[in-house]
Amino acid sequence: MEVGKSVPAEDQGSITRQRSSKYSDPFFATTLERGLRVLAAFRPDDAWLSNSEISARTGMPRSSVSRLTNTLVQLGYLGLNESGSYRVGSQVLSVAYPLLARFKIRQIARPFMRDFAVRAGGNVSIAMSNDLNAIMLDVTRSDDTALPDYISDIGFSVPLYRTAIGRAILSLMSPEERAALHQRTLETAPQLADGKAEADQGVEDCKTDGFCFASSWRAETLAVAAPLLRTADGECLALVCAVPAFRTNENEMRNDVGPRLVSLAARIRALAGGA
To answer: N or C, where is the chain less crowded by C-beta within 10 Å?
Structure first.
């Protein structure tokens, strides 16, 4: 679960099962997990949340939430307004920075991603795997006021199974890793498991064509994604180009944008030296 992502009601049961298995670990710090759950309750479009709203989203008692939010405010991870509501604080960004700084490929790729985004009329992103999701490490976009306001930004996450970028990331994993991930999906997020067949096809497309296409996650957007590289410590990175559906079509994405994205990925890999 990521900062900025909330827990849909239908997912509460599966997440509870996941936590229950962790609670059996004597080294699992429950208080820390609850504090992080509070931070994960905030969505990108939230202005401020009250303790009651955070309680409803996390499933924790309001009294527990109040103690956690008080501590998080004192540490700078939450901000507090005069009405007693909270928003994510700047300290969260400082915690994320070492992760972003580790991926020097972002600086190498950015000018090429920017040029590609302008030509395609959409946005180009680098993403990495984060359990069952892909999370954006960098995003560039064309200067276009017609782009939808949901276009992703750094830290935005999407399901691996249901998106082009997720399937490109999966193509970098071994069959054993993909099998283990599917088992986790069945255990903790079974509502996503029905996307496995399309995900498997996307993996196969990446291996044969160098990229995959997807339109099912958001009807307003068409996307192609290409595997980028796997780092020395095993992180899987991929590249995606998403274009509003009113501007393109599947044929153009498959026959023009996709092959050009494969070439872009190869160029970035060569400049990055696999790092």
So the answer is: C
